[in-house]
């Protein structure tokens, strides 16, 4: 998942504080024996398993540090079309070409969970989904589009508690951290004068 979209889903903003960013470790990774397709009439992709003999792989991100609240928001975001499944990925020690994978140097194998498309291949386009095109032409509308995240925000409200544990954009922890940062900035400015 594009980190800006990830931040928007779990923190409520594509521009979280440096503290919030520090809670996650995001690394490039490869998922073998899967293929990424564009969902028909949509901007977003779907990954599906493939036969080992096809030698296909998907470039993605490995994210460490997600909380149960973060997973709740991601599950809500991905919706009924996807199922969270355990898979093995290879963390990339060196990134090569994003499309062909040429020059990638794979490292450690890690068991993770990812969202696999379950809504039927008839809803997928034949070709590979183009991540570069998404970043260039669609990303802005995804991170700025409030309505895209309304279901997530409503689900969080319905729980009656903050599943981010206060880490969201408007969460109690984030608000307290912002107060502390502002206070530190004011103290630095006083000393500078």
The value of Rg in angstroms is: 19 Å
User: Which structural class do the helices and strands define?
Assistant: alpha+beta
Helix percentage range: 25-40%
Mean pLDDT: 82
Overall spatial form:
globular
Number of strands: 7
Report the β-strand fraction as a percent range.
Answer: 25-35%
Strand order of the largest sheet: 4-1-5-6
Low-confidence spans? 162-168
Separation of termini?
A: 45 Å
H/E element order: HHEEEEHEEEHHHH
**Largest sheet properties:** 4 strands, antiparallel
Total count of helical runs of at least 4 residues: 7
Keywords for this structure?
three-stranded antiparallel β-sheet; alpha+beta; 30% strand; 7 helices; 193 residues
Strand and helix map with partners:
Blueprint (H helix, E strand, L loop, with lengths): L2 H9 L6 H5 L2 E8 L1 E6 L5 E5 L7 E8 L3 H11 L3 E13 L10 E13 L6 E5 L2 H7 L1 H6 L5 H10 L12 H21 L1
Antiparallel strand pairs: 1-4, 1-5, 2-3, 2-7, 5-6
Helix pairs in contact: 1-3, 3-6
Question: How would you sum up this structure, described in words?
Answer:
The protein is an alpha+beta fold. The protein is built from seven helices and seven strands, in the order ααββββαβββαααα. It has helices at residues 3-11, 18-22, 68-78, 131-137, 139-144, 150-159, 172-192, and strands at residues 25-32, 34-39, 45-49, 57-64, 82-94, 105-117, 124-128. Strands 4-1-5-6 form a four-stranded antiparallel beta sheet, with no helix packed on it. Helix 1 crosses helix 3 (68-78) and helix 3 (68-78) packs across helix 6 (150-159). The N and C termini lie far apart (45 Å). Mean pLDDT is 82; it is low at 162-168.
């Amino acid at each position: 998942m594009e980190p800006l979209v990830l931040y928007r889903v779990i923190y409520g903003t594509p521009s979280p504080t440096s503290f919030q960013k520090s809670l996650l470790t995001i690394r490039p990774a490869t998922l073998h024996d899967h293929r990424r397709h564009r969902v028909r009439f949509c901007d977003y992709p779907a990954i599906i398993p493939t036969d080992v003999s096809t030698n296909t792989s998907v470039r993605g991100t490995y994210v460490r540090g997600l909380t149960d609240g973060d997973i709740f928001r991601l599950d809500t975001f991905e919706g009924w079309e996807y199922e969270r499944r355990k898979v093995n990925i290879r963390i990339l020690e060196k990134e090569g070409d994003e499309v062909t994978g040429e020059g990638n140097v794979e490292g450690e194998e890690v068991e993770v969970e990812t969202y696999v498309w379950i809504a039927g291949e008839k809803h997928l386009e034949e070709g590979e989904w183009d991540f570069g095109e998404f970043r260039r032409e669609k990303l802005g509308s995804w991170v700025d589009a409030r309505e895209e995240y309304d279901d997530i925000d409503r689900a969080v409200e319905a729980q009656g508690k903050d599943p981010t544990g206060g880490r969201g954009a408007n969460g109690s922890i984030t608000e307290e951290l912002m107060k502390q940062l502002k206070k530190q900035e004011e103290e630095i400015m006083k000393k500078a004068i």
